[in-house]
Amino acid sequence: MMIQRGPVMSQTEAEPDVDVEGKLKEAFARGWSVIVWNDPINLMDYVVYVFKAVLKMSEQDASRHMWEVHKNGKSVVARETREKSEMIVHRLRAFGLNTTLEEAA
Amino acid sequence: MTCEPLDNNRWRLSFAEPEAAFIMNVLARLARHYREDIAELSPELRTFWQNGVSVRDAAQKAEGGEAGESRDVLAESRADLRSERRELAESWLRDFELAEEPWTFEMTTAERDEFVSMLNDRRLILALEAGITQEDAPASSKVTVDDRRTAIMEIDVLGHFIMIMLGPQIFRA
User: Which residues does B contribute to its contact with A (CB < 8 Å)?
Assistant: First the structure.
């Protein structure tokens, strides 16, 4: 005997408009990394501000990525579809951050 | 210089006369830089304005494909950005020239961020032209906003001007 834990969704309750296949494809297509590289000119507080403004990061996450760039030379700040990654790279570079797009392994 | 919030999305920037003159000079130089053809820039500046895609290995580089498409898209958007910023630099330069002391401007957050980004462009361009490295710029990696730091920077800039003016006499062989 199987014990049902939690609510059961009947056929009639399923959402017919949800493009499950499309969502799965998009999830698997997030294979493009946005990498911010260290440079000697951009100010630390400025980089934190840009991460918060462009990537909507919390103060804590933005600081963590800034320190990662500063100490390790680079940080992967986003992994998205190619089109979204291009847009992020463009915006970060418009602020002067040394940013590249790279196809993930 | 001061920058005070007016509401959630507007700021008032005020400059003293020497600061306004300095910013006007920066805007004029930026406008001139943005007008230049990317192909005519130094290799370092060309990389700054064009490169936006990195590859992990030679095999991936050889594949081209989507990475190549992204490189083209980003290069085009960077060229458009230079064009937009040239117009902005020229427009703000006109505003500064028409304004009188105190040089006061109101901007939205987006406009202020664009202004800041363009001043940062000038810093990055200067660094690339002068070959500034991490070892050369330890102080600028963590600038604090206080009167003492501002004074030190102004002393540095004025000292630089003095040395340029006196240089021909001081540095005689």
Answer: 51-56, 60, 66-67, 70, 73-74, 77-78, 81, 113, 116-117, 120-121, 123-124, 127, 132-134, 136-137, 140-143
